[in-house]
Amino acid sequence: MAIVRVVGVVGAGQMGAGIAQLAAAAQMAVVMADSDGAALTRGLQSISSSLARFVKKGVISEDEANATLARVSTTTSLADMSSADVVIEAVSERENVKKGIFSELDRLLKPSAILASNTSSISITRLAASTQRPQQVIGMHFMNPPPLMKLVEIVRGLATADEVFEQTKELAERFGKTVVSSRDFPGFVVNRILMPMINEAFYALLEGVSSAEEIDTAMKLGTNQPMGPLALADFIGLDTCLSIMGVLHAGLGDAKYRPCPLLAQYVDAGWLGRKSGRGVYHYL
Ligand code: CAA
């Protein structure tokens, strides 16, 4: 099995930058691409501040942090990824944008390269169908924040080859992650279970069962979660939560996945969570 030396990451947002950091920390050369140059600058800053936290805690030395950052190069052109053994796409959850990137990468990359997507909700089988190498397309779903969260869900599309699954699993393990495998069903494993819990927290809030703070305290202290479901929704982004509930509802067809109207209303108001300064809670 070919060893992965060069990793491409498409998208320099929170997830893309975190994934680039993991690959660089695992001694791989990383090419991080984004069509927006300013996003690349922000992505590098976020890697640098995350590494600084690890230095402060004594997890890595300052030299290791500098060497990790130096292994990340940036570009606005996907053509600069032609030497990549694996490319992990982590752009926003718009299927047509992802398909466009996949078919362009398919033309640019060497035949052996693996195309992975960090999608949390789009079908890997459909993304794979936009390429001429569906057997080498796979889902590699990281959790936010990628440098800290220990899990990667690996999602096999209908055509994904066994060898590609093994190679992707090995890569995630080199990143220091534990892997679970999922079939290509709406929400995979984590969001299939997490999002209905978050959605139910919004229903409990809507119905006045408890206040937001009490709902979160109940779940934090009652079930040992690091954040309550409403705080976690703000952290993930309420628009993302709503969109994933929509995928579960449409894809699984059961009324139990109906997005909570209060969640939809917050999104309509532009209350998207931490990133917009207000969600269930205020952040400014
Ligand atoms: N890089 C390095 N270190 C980081 C970091 C980063 N990006 N973010 C936080 N840290 C460190 C902090 O420096 C801090 O270190 P110390 O304890 O040594 O001071 C520690 O992590 C805790 O951070 P904070 O004090 O800022 O805040 P916190 O205690 O609330 O922890 C958290 C933050 C790690 C995010 C924690 O709240 C948590 O685990 N929350 C749940 C996150 C979760 O469930 N994520 C998955 C969401 S689902 C998903 O991602 C899938 C999807 O498709 C939607």
From TrEMBL:
Catalyses which reaction(s): a 4-saturated-(3S)-3-hydroxyacyl-CoA = a (3E)-enoyl-CoA + H2O; a (3S)-3-hydroxyacyl-CoA = a (2E)-enoyl-CoA + H2O
Sites where the protein binds CoA: 50, 57, 120
Protein name: 3-hydroxybutyryl-CoA dehydrogenase
InterPro entries noted in UniProt: 3-OHacyl-CoA_DH (IPR022694), 3-OHacyl-CoA_DH_CS (IPR006180), 3-OHacyl-CoA_DH_NAD-bd (IPR006176), 3HC_DH_C (IPR006108), 6-PGluconate_DH-like_C_sf (IPR008927), 6PGD_dom2 (IPR013328), NAD(P)-bd_dom_sf (IPR036291)
Source organism, top-level taxon: Eukaryota
Record-linked Gene3D superfamilies: N-(1-d-carboxylethyl)-l-norvaline Dehydrogenase, domain 2, NAD(P)-binding Rossmann-like Domain
Residue ranges constituting the 3-hydroxyacyl-CoA dehydrogenase C-terminal domain according to the UniProt record: 187-283
Record domain 3-hydroxyacyl-CoA dehydrogenase NAD binding: where: 7-184
Pathway where this protein functions: Lipid metabolism; fatty acid beta-oxidation
Positions bearing the site annotation: Important for catalytic activity: 141
Protein biosynthesis is among the record's keywords: no
Keywords, comma-separated and alphabetical: NAD, Oxidoreductase
Family assignment from sequence similarity: In the central section; belongs to the 3-hydroxyacyl-CoA dehydrogenase family. Belongs to the 3-hydroxyacyl-CoA dehydrogenase family.
MF terms (GO), sorted A to Z: enoyl-CoA hydratase activity; NAD+ binding; oxidoreductase activity; oxidoreductase activity, acting on the CH-OH group of donors, NAD or NADP as acceptor
Pfam families according to UniProt: 3HCDH (PF00725), 3HCDH_N (PF02737)
GO terms (BP aspect): fatty acid metabolic process
